[in-house]
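Propose amino acids for all 275 sites.
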């Protein structure tokens, strides 16, 4: 259609967009009010995968929602409650930002406390030495039992060779002793593997001290993605309850770091956001 002065004339060219498609697009634009959809998740969960529910022991996953003013609320929520309902777990959602700040502040605080660093190092190294000592004792006992079984097998085989014992009468006993020896071999191998793992996890006092004392400076200057990686470098897992947070650091014994209750961490139910 071409307009000239006050008159309209049919155009001679083919339309670029057919009328059906044009009307369909216009209808969708009208329905959307011409607005673009808002970005979905603008909060980077730096503790994702590290938080466990102190009520039922399940992992706490990330969750976010918007209130009627389109303000984003980010939470950590119990997966057990999500999947099976509130009868399976009574734990409420935990606001993400204050929880993450509390953990970061605690790690920064640890990096500034020489006595805490020294205690963590001494405890970690003492536990490592104790574990290795226990496993060495265990391996020695297993090897002693293995040697005794081999001696008994040799004695039975020697009796057969010298025709002092009939083959038929000792065959079953030899098979039983061989099975015991194989079981001991498996246990010795398991002890060796556990000892090797313990040695790899053992850290020197200097390396652990360096890790803790540089955390605060690095964290303050880091981007959100880098903060998440720094947290993962230090934290093994944390268990959340409204009364305390049990924080386990990597390369140190699992211990209850009681961080206390914070009014900011009293979680809101999703239906309360619209009030």
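Proposal:
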């Amino acid at each position: 259609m071409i307009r000239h002065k006050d008159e309209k004339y049919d155009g001679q060219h083919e339309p670029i967009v057919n009328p059906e498609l044009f009307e369909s697009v216009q209808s969708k634009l009208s329905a959307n009010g011409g607005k673009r959809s808002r970005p979905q998740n603008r909060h980077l969960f730096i503790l994702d995968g590290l938080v466990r529910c102190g009520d039922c022991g399940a992992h706490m996953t990330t969750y976010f929602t918007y209130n009627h003013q389109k303000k984003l609320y980010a939470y950590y929520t119990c997966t057990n409650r999500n999947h099976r309902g509130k009868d399976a777990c009574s734990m409420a959602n935990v606001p993400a930002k204050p929880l993450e700040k509390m953990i970061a502040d605690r790690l920064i605080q640890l990096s500034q406390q020489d006595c805490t660093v020294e205690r963590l190092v001494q405890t970690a190294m003492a536990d490592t030495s104790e574990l290795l000592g226990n496993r060495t004792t265990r391996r020695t006992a297993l090897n002693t039992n293995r040697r005794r079984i081999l001696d008994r097998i040799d004695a039975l085989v020697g009796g057969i060779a010298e025709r002092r014992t009939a083959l038929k009468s000792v065959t079953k006993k030899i098979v039983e002793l061989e099975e015991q020896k194989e079981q001991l071999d498996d246990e010795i191998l398991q002890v060796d593997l556990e000892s090797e793992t313990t040695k790899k996890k053992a850290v020197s006092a200097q390396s652990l001290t360096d890790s803790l004392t540089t955390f605060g400076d690095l964290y303050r200057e880091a981007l959100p993605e880098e903060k998440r990686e720094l947290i993962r470098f230090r934290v093994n897992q944390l268990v959340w309850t409204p009364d305390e947070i049990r924080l386990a650091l990597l390369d140190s014994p699992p211990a209850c770091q009681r961080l206390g209750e914070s009014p900011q961490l009293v979680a809101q139910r999703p239906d309360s956001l619209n009030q």
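Residues 114-161 form the longest helix (48 residues). Strands lie at 2-4, 7-9, 51-53, 60-66, 72-78, 94-95, 235-240, 245-249.
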